[in-house]
Design brief:
CATH architecture of the largest domain: Beta Barrel
CATH topology of the largest domain: Porin
Structural class: alpha+beta
Radius of gyration: 23 Å
């Protein structure tokens, strides 16, 4: 029986309306928390709330960590504006068939900043740096994925330093085999006090959708509502080129976002990028123009140890028959289960509802074991 996604949609709408009433003009502290991690999400217009399906989910939506099969790591460099650089590293590790943990750290360095006196002369230089440390947990409940991230945030300007604590909460609902809906509440926490008054963190809400339009084309969209700014819309696309080389692929990405159009011009809305993957290693690049402020470049390296697992290390199903313990590969059992389903559907002339219910149980069982269930999803989407 298909679950009704209305509760998630109603909750998201209520949170967005509540946030609209609470929003106030002004700026927040720790603004570096707004700068997204990863070249892949950046190239897709930062529309990644529902599309998060790898280690980048540590930043974008912790619920997306549930799609990590085994272990993933990422290292990223962001050549930001005015000589500012943001570096980050993160990992995600599956603990069980239903839960995943993740962690990450980001460091922003502004370089040397000129100190001037009231007469306009330079009196040396000073530096500023920001850092955040993240710890995430995600859990899968059939079609519903939930996750949370705890953060320690630090800002330093010359000899002044301040710390804050924050949390993100995220959810993803698999509306159908091709469509996912997602929502996040970001940076809920304490304020930073570098001066006499505490500055609030850049809290906000995001809601989005990810549509697998075809086998090689992913379309995404987000609505982002910062509590201290106006609503912005984000759209992205990713096209995977079929590769004649086994284990390799090339991705082209593009996006559009309205967040900075009002004050940086129309060109700041565009994002572009690409990715290349061979075996377990992938390299992603993103280019984002910011009007008169210049261009930003993001580069990310990902290592997916999911792809390194050998046949002997593949997930197993343990069957207990009396005193005998039988271990079988989950992928092998999955293939036999699909053969059983095809035979049962034909011999017993199952209805569409009965076939869908059985396929959904197969998908839930074997996807939690890290098995590629794309064939079962295709059958479910086709109404077989």
């Amino acid at each position: 029986m298909k679950k009704n996604p209305a509760p998630l949609l109603l909750l998201t709408a209520a949170l967005l309306l509540a946030a609209a009433g609470a929003r106030a003009a002004g700026t927040s502290g720790a603004s570096f928390l707004r700068v997204g991690w990863g070249a892949r999400p950046a190239a897709m217009g930062e529309a990644f709330t529902a599309a998060a399906d790898d280690v980048d989910a540590v930043y974008w939506n912790p619920a997306g960590l549930n799609y990590v099969k085994r272990l993933q790591q990422t290292f990223g460099h962001n050549s930001w504006l005015e000589g500012t650089n943001l570096e980050h590293a993160a990992f995600a590790l599956r603990r069980s068939t239903a839960s995943v943990i993740g962690a990450g750290v980001a460091y922003l360095n502004t370089g040397d900043i000129e100190r001037g006196n009231k007469y306009g002369y330079t009196e040396g230089y000073y530096s500023a740096a920001d850092m955040s440390v993240l710890l995430s947990y995600a859990r899968r409940l059939k079609k519903f994925h939930a996750g949370a991230t705890l953060k320690v945030v630090q800002e330093r300007i010359e000899s002044s330093e301040a710390k804050a604590f924050a949390a993100d909460a995220g959810a993803i609902y698999e509306f159908s085999p091709k469509l996912r809906l997602g929502a996040t509440l970001r940076n809920l926490g304490t304020g930073l006090t570098l001066t006499k008054e505490a500055a609030p963190l850049p809290m906000g809400l995001r809601a989005g959708a990810a549509l697998q339009f075809s086998k090689n084309l992913l379309l995404t969209s987000d609505a982002s509502l910062p509590f201290d700014d106006s609503l912005s819309l984000h759209f992205g696309a990713e096209y995977i080129y079929p590769s004649p080389i086994k284990g390799a692929r090339l991705a082209l990405r593009g996006g559009f976002k309205t967040a900075s159009m009002a004050y940086l011009g129309a060109t700041s809305a565009l994002t572009l990028g690409f990715g290349a993957e061979a075996g377990a290693v992938g390299l992603d690049y993103a280019l984002s123009p910011y009007g008169d402020l210049g261009l930003t470049h993001r580069l990310s390296l990902k290592i997916k140890f999911d792809a390194l697992s050998s046949k002997q290390e593949a997930p197993e199903i343990v069957i207990q028959k009396g005193k005998r313990t039988i271990r079988r590969g989950a992928a092998e059992v999955y293939a036999e289960t699909l053969q059983w389903f095809a035979a049962k559907a034909a011999s017993e002339k199952l209805s569409k509802t009965e076939r869908s219910a059985i396929l959904q149980r197969i998908i839930d069982k074997f996807s939690a074991l890290g098995v590629d269930v794309s064939q079962a999803k295709q059958l479910l989407g086709a109404g077989q």
